[in-house]
Amino acid sequence: MSPRRIGVMGGTFDPIHHGHLVAASEVQARFHLDEVIFVPTGQPWQKADRVVSKAEDRYLMTVIATASNPVFSVSRVDIDRGGQTFTIDTLRDLQTEYPDDELFFITGADALEQILTWRDADELFKYAHFIGVTRPGYHLDDHHLPRGKVSLVEVTAMAISSTGCRERVRAAEPVWYLVPDGVVRYIDKRRLYKDPSP
Ligand code: ATP
Ligand code: MG
């Protein structure tokens, strides 16, 4: 069997929104990926300054958002490992799970720029090809990234962020159509983002 091409979309997904889904779908089509695995983080060290929703809530919202797409799935590797998530650990675990397949790590341009500050940055490129998603007009300075290991893809502008969604819920403004319907319901049911952070 020829190696499958597997996209890996890491994120806090607090909450998952249509920007994430459009980016994953666009990359899946353009890179002919057989599957895209969404991987919600454990407690993310990049966001130590704010309270992140429980892993189980972020996991379930990601499942709800991706359930109807036959080539989208969700992995618990980062949540079940526990502690802070480092991308190198995510890729090592998925490589173990899919030893014969090719991994494509999908990340926003903002995160890609920080890539060399990540732990074991050089090693990351041994495990996966990196795909940086940019928005039209966004200039990414890529001269310091290793040649042939990173591709940049421009995705139709989607000015949606999880931060924006949380602020809207806090302010009792609607998030309909920014996140999938089931995620709107789930946020409401679990009263996420309503109360001030402790
Ligand atoms: P926050 O506002 O809390 O930082 P976020 O919207 O950036 O959240 P993350 O879970 O941090 O969401 O993002 C996961 C990945 O998706 C990151 O690589 C990020 O760059 C990318 N991403 C986030 N929003 C968009 C968007 N609107 N379009 C394309 N990619 C996005
Ligand atoms: Mg972000």
How is this structure best described in words?
With 198 residues, the chain is α/β, with parallel strands linked by helices. The protein has one domain: 3-Layer(aba) Sandwich (Rossmann fold), CATH 3.40.50. The chain is 36% helix and 17% strand. It is built from eight helices and six strands, in the order E-H-E-H-E-H-H-E-H-H-E-E-H-H. The protein has helices spanning 18-30, 55-66, 77-81, 87-97, 109-113, 121-127, 162-170, 181-189, and strands spanning 5-11, 35-40, 72-74, 102-108, 129-134, 150-154. It has a six-stranded parallel β-sheet with strand order 3-2-1-4-5-6, with helices on both faces. It starts with a strand and ends in a 9-residue tail after the last helix. It binds adenosine-5'-triphosphate (ATP) and magnesium ion. Adenosine-5'-triphosphate is lined by residues 11-14, 19-20, 23, 107-108, 110-111, 133, 155, 158, 160-163.
Task: List strands and helices in order, with pairings.
Blueprint: E1 5-11, H1 18-30, E2 35-40, H2 55-66, E3 72-74, H3 77-81, H4 87-97, E4 102-108, H5 109-113, H6 121-127, E5 129-134, E6 150-154, H7 162-170, H8 181-189
Parallel strand pairs: 1-2, 1-4, 2-3, 4-5, 5-6
Helix pairs in contact: 2-8, 4-6
